[in-house]
Amino acid sequence: MLDFAIFAVTFLLILVGAVLYLCPASRQASGIPGMTPTDEKDGNLPDIVNSGSLHEFLVNLHEKYGPVVSFWFGRRLVVSVGSIDLLKQHINPNRTSDPFEMMLKSLLRYQSGLCGDAGESHLRKKLYENGVTKSLQSNFAVIQKLSEELLAKWLSFPESQHVPLCQHMLGFAMKSVTQTAMGSSFEDDREVIRFRRNHDAIWAEIGRGFLDGSLDKSMTRKKRYEDALMEMESVLKKVTKERRGRNFNRHVFIDSLLQGSLSDKQILEDTMIFSLAGCVITAKLCTWAVYFLTTSEEVQQNLYKEVDRVLGKGPLTHEKIEQLRYCRQVLCETVRTAKLTPIAARLQELEGRIDQHIIPKETLVLYALGVVLQDSSAWASPYKFDPDRFNDESAMKNFSLLGFSGSQECPELRFAYMVATVLLSVLVRKLYLHPVKGQVMETKYELVTSPKEEAWITVSKRS
After folding, report:
1. Residues of the chain with pLDDT under 70
2. What is the DSSP secondary-structure string of 223-258?
């Protein structure tokens, strides 16, 4: 199967798990508008492949059939919800499980926490979230230092030099995550390079090879993946052992996990999840934010004015960062315009209802976030990059409902928001960010949305 088709399989495998396929006789039970199976065995998988990605398939499906649609993955019914009003009927803010975390754990074949006690899962989630919060507070100076180092690098470039934005943002994100998650040993660039090599090898297989059997058919790929996973786990175990029962000057993410009542296996899993997801989400958010700033001189200047007003000539502090309201609007609009995470999902545990439609028990329900984020009934001029739209309180409420802000945002995104805020504050104080003329930016829709090819920019010094 093609890589982009495998993303759809990922959702099914993880969120449905061991639930048996629906029998063919139930195929017309829902009465929800949508596609009938193209293939008896694969359902509408060929249609997803032909669309280019699951997100693009859902865009076409909702345009044709409306805000609630159905299709078939193999013999399993899948329902997709593509409007904010209808999502309000289905989203349960009291759930403790994170679909993104569940996907990664299943793909990594981690089982603890997927089907455990609800009370234990809640406590573990709180420990994880508090770990992110404390590591950000304790390592604010580290993130600032890394941002200043990137600024110095860009200031050294001739104004005509093209800067490989994706490459630089991934490197910056990996340094930020590893040092805040695991400590000072990752100040050594050799450790970061090794981490990046393993991270890239693991992430390249997430959502693909396992599910179509291609990984097992390629011994070279399989060995590279397994070696990378084993080496990264070995590093995480080593850090855990070194920091257990000891006091360090800086509190890092893994320290919070060690202070709880987690097993070594749970500590390993949660550190792996934060390391993988934190790097990717932070890198892509920073990439898209800087790119969108290059496309709008007005937004860039407004951001500069806010940074200058709030920070002045003084140092960057955690308290002042919290005052950068327009910067947060820029980042929210970045998430919306880029459709940073285009799909979420839940398993319908009991029979339920969306609008007038009955959702059968054990149906996979997709939240077509990429569709909702560019729905003209919810967002004026949805394809325009316009941070001012988040001056409207209703826009922030909608954004929070979708899980991109407030109490519903995932810890990795909260981490990424803070890191990106520090980075943008450092960059726009000293630099103008420019687009490369003639560059056409195409988008790759996966678990986290990214540019298909390298994104290039140029920079010049502010006078």
Report:
1. 1-30, 92-104, 106-107, 111-118, 207-216
2. HHHHHHHHHHHHHHHHHHHHHTT---SS--HHHHHH
Name the phi and psi angles at 146, rounded to 5.
Answer: -65, -35
Q: How far apart are CA 112 and CA 131, in angstroms?
A: 19
What value, to the nearest 5°, has the Cα angle with vertex 129 and ends 123 and 130?
90
* Total Cβ atoms within 10 A of residue 5: 24
Q: What is the pLDDT of residues 186-197, one digit of tens each?
A: 999 999 999 999
198 close to 231: Cβ distance less than 8 angstroms: yes
The sign of the torsion formed by the CA atoms of 67, 68, 72, 78 equals: positive
Q: How many alpha carbons lie under 13 Å from residue 373 in its C-beta half-sphere?
A: 27
DSSP E strand boundaries for 82-196: 163-164
Sheet architecture: strand order including 431-435: 163-164, 456-461, 431-435
Instruction: Provide the token pair at 30.
Output: 């829902």
CA pair distance 231, 81, nearest whole angstrom: 40
**DSSP-assigned letter for residue 39:** B
Determine the 3-state secondary structure of 62 from DSSP: helix
With tokens 């994100």, the residue in question is 173
Residue 212 buriedness (CB in 10 A; 0-12 / 13-18 / 19+): middle
Residue with tokens 């090599």: 197
Give backbone dihedrals phi and psi of 450, rounded to 5 degrees, phi first: -145, 165
Distance CA 237, CA 243 (A): 10
339, 56 in Cβ contact below 8 A?
no
Q: Which residues pair with 450 in a beta bridge?
A: 444
What whole-number distance in Å separates Cα of residue 200 and Cα of residue 195?
8
CA 233 to chain centre: 22
Question: For 426-435, what is each residue's pLDDT tens digit?
Answer: 999 999 999 9
How far is the C-alpha of 203 from the C-alpha of 461, rounded, in Å?
Answer: 36
Give the C-alpha separation, 56 to 444, whole Å. 10
